[in-house]
């Protein structure tokens, strides 16, 4: 299917064509086409793109298996397009200004430490509706390893087995899976669902049935979006000085990494995250050098025993 690019994109590529080699222009066109296809699938116009949308796109590329170098090249084209739109078309701002691409062989952001997680979760204070909602969001993201997109897609019927310690999530391709929910996440979710939590944000009249069934609401009484959830995460990250460490999937990555560090079987983590392939889990939950060293020293006989003198 042929993708029709926006006027801004076509003008940007024409601008690039008089300054760069033909192969560079072709690469930019591929990257811009992929980007605007993504925006179209998510019903976002170029002028309405926010930093959260760009962060989601970086995550999308990473989840598709793109290496850091490849993501960096793609983002160079995306940044160029947005800067051109600001300079030549008067767009209000450049949403790529503060977006960073993680470096590394697999482009996977480094997990937060357990101490950093405690600081982040502890930064949500109060018992008002917003605090209850935000605490439940952060506890669920870390406690279950869910994607942000899965979390905001949760509906009340998906929580029918919460008393049994599980909920139902829908991952990529609407694939359903059962996800265990730990005590802290269950308690935070229960506090949000009871008064004065979710009911405070519920409107007098629901805009749609989908909104009425949404677990997480924004302050207008609509289903919370991925961008809204990401901004909530960023807000609390800013409070505890973790802004530069945060990515849309950082709590998911931290959950899996910490489980592995505490001895979980990688196939259990694979099932928890909803990965179709164990290879994806191996990349996404790359173990630390310290864990490798500790495992080696505990398991290898000639690492543990000192040589007799």
TL;DR?
The chain has 309 residues and is mainly alpha-helical. It is 56% helix and 3% strand. It has a two-stranded antiparallel ribbon with strand order 1-2.
Written description of the protein model:
With about 300 residues, the protein is mainly alpha-helical. Among the domains are: about 5-90, Orthogonal Bundle (DNA polymerase, domain 1); about 115-245, hpI Integrase, Chain A (Orthogonal Bundle), CATH 1.10.443. It contains 16 helices and 2 strands. It has helices at about 5-15, 20-40, 50-65, 70-90, 115-120, 130-145, 150, 185-195, 200, 210-215, 225-240, 250-260, 265-275, 280-285, 290-300, 300-305, and strands at about 165-170, 175-180. The chain has a two-stranded antiparallel sheet. The longest helix is centred in the N-terminal third of the chain and has 22 residues, at about 70-90.
Q: Strand-and-helix sequence, N→C?
A: HHHHHHHEEHHHHHHHHH
Helix content: 55-70%
- The count of helical stretches stands at 16
What's the story with the biggest beta sheet? 2 strands, antiparallel
Determine the N-to-C terminus distance.
74 Å
- Secondary structure category: mainly alpha
Q: Which ranges are low-confidence, i.e. pLDDT below 50, for 5 or more consecutive residues?
A: none
